[in-house]
Design brief:
Blueprint lengths: L2 H18 L6 H17 L3 H16 L4 H11 L2 H7 L3
Length: about 90
């Protein structure tokens, strides 16, 4: 490894170890890390993967809803006609 590459690698490892060796991130830095990671995950997904993830997350969030809660949600966000269209036959 050339001296320049070795120096840059050491600098990078020093920077990374600042955040991994001890808990030095404040709330803002941790939030930024989370946002960066989320964007990294999303950037690596194709449309089918994004749709599958959205479906799974929505299904999980509605899993414990009662019939009354679901009807209320649909009517609040849409309307009675949409509710009628979505009801099982």
């Amino acid at each position: 490894m050339s001296l320049i590459k070795q120096y840059l690698y050491q600098q990078q490892m020093s920077f990374v170890s600042k955040f991994t060796d001890s808990k030095t991130m404040n709330e803002s830095e941790l939030f930024q890390l989370k946002e960066n990671y989320i964007n990294h995950i999303i950037d690596g997904m194709d449309m089918d993967s994004l749709v599958t993830m959205a479906y799974d997350l929505l299904l999980d969030s509605y899993q414990d809803c009662t019939e009354e809660q679901m009807i209320e949600e649909i009517k609040d966000l849409y309307d009675e006609e949409t509710l009628a269209d979505l009801l099982p036959e």
